Amino acid sequence: MKQEKKGFFNKFLDFIEVGGNKLPHPVTLFVLFCLTIIIVSGITEKMGVSATYNALNKKTGNFEEITVTVKSLTNAAGIRYIFNSMVKNFTGFAPLGTVLVGIIGIGVCEGSGLMSSTIKKVVMGTPRRAITAIVVFAGVMSNVASDAGYVVLVPLGAVIFLSFGRHPLAGLAAAFAGVSGGFSA
Q1: Rounded CA gap, 184 and 50, in Å?
Q2: Using an 8 Å Cβ cutoff, are 153 and 139 in contact?
Q3: At residue 54, what are phi and psi to the nearest 5 degrees?
Q4: C-alpha of 38 from chain center
Q5: CA 31 → CA 12, 27, 72, 78, 150, distances in Å?
Q6: Rounded to 5 degrees, what angle do the CA atoms 153, 12, 163 make?
Q7: What is the number of other CB atoms lying within 10 angstroms of the CB of residue 169?
Q8: Lower CB count within 10 Å: N or C terminus of the chain?
Q9: Helices (H) and strands (E) in the chain, counts
Q10: What is the pLDDT of residue 123?
Q11: Tell me, what's the pLDDT at 52?
């Protein structure tokens, strides 16, 4: 069996992939970051950290200087705040509904075989040299679907690149660039 010689860019992407694979599960990272924020809030409150900035008072129309101090999440009031505002924090996140519906749709498409057949159709119908442009263009066009492009197309770009025998991180980056470019336009 003949081994392909990898270029510098593919070796670099392999290195990034190995590092990414060593990270803990995303849920574990989420919990660790939450605990870190709780601990840091307690430490910074004890230190008396505050921030001062100018803000527009909507009633008077004038800029006023406002000072905000850190409130600890380690005491009883902080823990109450965490649990009382948890639902509001998640439901107040505007893209949540679109992303959830998109993820359910992706699950149905994957389970029914529509996703794999669509990817095969795109792969078979696109010349190898044009796949990067197609993935970036699809990313730009995904801004119509609000924030769902980030959730749906970015991993899809990786899968498409992988099916072409290219590094999936390059596809992920191309899709991310397209979605970001379209979203900011």
Answers
A1: 32
A2: yes
A3: -95, 130
A4: 22
A5: 30, 6, 18, 17, 22
A6: 40
A7: 20
A8: N
A9: 8, 2
A10: 62
A11: 94
pLDDT at 2: 57
Strand segments (E) across the chain: 50-56, 63-69
User: Would you give the DSSP letter of residue 164?
Assistant: T
Given a cut of 70, the residues of the chain with pLDDT beneath it are 1-4, 116, 119-120, 122-124, 144-148
CB of 33 closer than 8 Å to CB of 18: no
At which residue do the structure tokens 């860019």 appear? 9
The residues, ordered by sequence, that sit 6+ positions from 85 with a Cβ below 8 Å of its Cβ are none
User: Based on the number of CB atoms within 10 Å of its own CB, is 155 exposed (0-12), middle (13-18) or buried (19 or more)?
Assistant: middle
Q: Is 138 exposed, middle or buried (0-12, 13-18, 19+ CB in 10 A)?
A: buried
The two structure tokens encoding residue 161: 């690149």
Which residues lie across from 54 on neighbouring strands?
65
Is the separation of the CB atoms in 151 and 99 below 8 Å? yes
**Alpha carbon distance, N-terminus to C-terminus of the chain:** 48
Mapped onto helix, strand or coil, the DSSP state of residue 52 is strand
Q: Which residues pair with 69 in a beta bridge?
A: 50
Category of 61 on φ-ψ map: left (φ > 0), alpha (ψ -120 to 50) or beta: left
CA-CA distance, 183 to 185, in Å (whole number)? 5
User: What percent of the chain is helix, strand and coil (3-state, nearest 5)?
Assistant: 70, 10, 20
